[in-house]
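Quick one: structure for this chain?
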Amino acid sequence: MASLSPKHTGPRHLQRIWRGEPLAGKHVLVRCYHGLGDTIQFLRFMRPLRDVACSVTLWCQSELLSLAERAAGVDRSLALHDGTPDVEFEVDIEIMEVPHALKVGREQIEMRAPYLTLPPRRVPFSVDREGLAVGLVWEVGQWDKRRAVPPELLRHFAVRGVALHSLQRDATRESLLGIGARDINTPDVATLGHLLRELDLVICVDTMVAHLAGALGCEAWVLLHADCDWRWPSTGGRSFWYPSVRLFRQTTAGDWSVVIAEVSEALQQRVKSGQTVA
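Got it. Here's what it folds into:
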């Protein structure tokens, strides 16, 4: 058997940290080396990990500390940095390796209730209540630009009875005017969580906001490209990862027209139904 490479070399998102060491009864360090959405999605496994471990320390992105420290199963959370964690541990594991290490099945993966809680709201804000309050996110990071939707297409969501709000970071004035959306974006993830709870619905591409909304139990409609990421089912409009999320997917790679038309029709039906957060 070929020897394994050292654990902590190479790009973090490619590192395989866990080498089969026992987790039961150990002080475990969980490293969060992928994206914010990945960390949010896999925080659900900290409770079952803590059920077998002596303690769980989460070394996570600083943006998520206020959520991570409140997550069930987490004894301590530290801000991720380029050095080494200032904490003693007996075994370490990357957060996306945890379900494999615990050999979880669908019953442990399936979300039956929100698993994230928010700290008290620190920043005052308000959303428009002239109609159905809808948040929008259309751009993604540099990882996979196929997920992004041209902002000009979102003007089709400006139907009667809908108040559009932009949650998009760094949205241009031209984009906001073209869509007809009020800018309420924030860099603070906890504040963003409170905004999602105030809105009636968020329509977003496959990015961190989709996972935050799902983990909080907020309603979200997620727009997926034809060859979507592994975490979403290849067919159907629902995912057992997040029961409050509805999926709309491309039928032809690169063509968002069908998706936009389906979402516009569903949005009009939602307005007619009169459902709001209240």
